[in-house]
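Reading is simple: each integer encodes one residue's backbone shape. The lines below illustrate:
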Amino acid sequence: MSISIIYSTPSTASSYALNSSFVSFPTTLTSISKLLSSSPPHRPFRLRTTLPPPILCSSSSLSVSDMDATGGESLYPLHRTKTLHLVRHAQGIHNVEGEKDHDAYLSYDLFDANITPLGWKQVDNLRKHVHACGLSKRVDLVVVSPLLRTMQTAVGVFGGEAYTDGINVPPLMAANTGKSGRPAISSLNSPPFVAVELCREHLGVHPCDKRRSITEYRPLFPAVDFSLIENDDDILWTPDIRERNEEVSARGQKFLKWLWTRKEKEIAIVSHSGFLFHTLSAFGNDCHPSVKSEICTHFANCELRSVVIIDRSMIGSDSSTTNYPGKIPSGLDLPSDIASEKHPEEKGA
């Protein structure tokens, strides 16, 4: 699999998506042809040498010595990209207790940890931000880890509008779920929500990372789609073996590959610190160190980062919704430079 991640802000990502049929990003590679050598020959790209410092980041393992200061620009078809808005859950009770005493993470008192009152304030502030910047109107899908704290965060940030008389839709979250003291959160005019096991936190040992059964979750989160979860009980979590960092990273790459099977172009993902960190750490090795740092640092509670992922291996199959074939109606349209090559005897005429 060959996927690149471009770090951006929500406003930057949207400007690319709205204004061009191709997405143009700078690159730090000494030779762009080296980066694209595995791409099919029809994939369009162009190079320029008068651009600002480069920031294209991929999962290739290049050192800083492999980079130079001569930036370039590469073009990618817009339908070969997706915008991801990555969110770590709000503060959970395990964050509070674990910072006081790391051994607290072993306590079953923290099983499937809910978010704290402070965490709900973080959710409220992030919700205000995604509405103020327009992100709430652009998200096509919310993918969420099926744990209490991530689902509380996801529905609190990206959930729908308040109920209106005469409109009856299932709530995203029932009232007082997880001792929240919160009223029900509506699904009215919200994007669809789907729970996915691939984006869970490190599996095993810590009870805070063990989920409830799907049977228990369904009445708590009625409008969340749990159909992609195969087992009712949590068979992935074990009490004596903690998932290794490299295993989390591999799971993260599998998750990104799964995202290319989705038709949605702009996706919010609400997950966990460890999962996000180890997934993103596979990227950015060909970036300037400051950009690598932007991508590959741990997330704060309720932090949002937006990135663009690029499909350079034809994983996705969706065709462009904005490209137009031209020649409708058909007519002669041979460009002058090609005409000169076709009729060289007429060049000097």
Observations:
- The longest helix spans residues 117-132.
- Confidence is low (pLDDT under 50) at residues 9-57, 60-72.
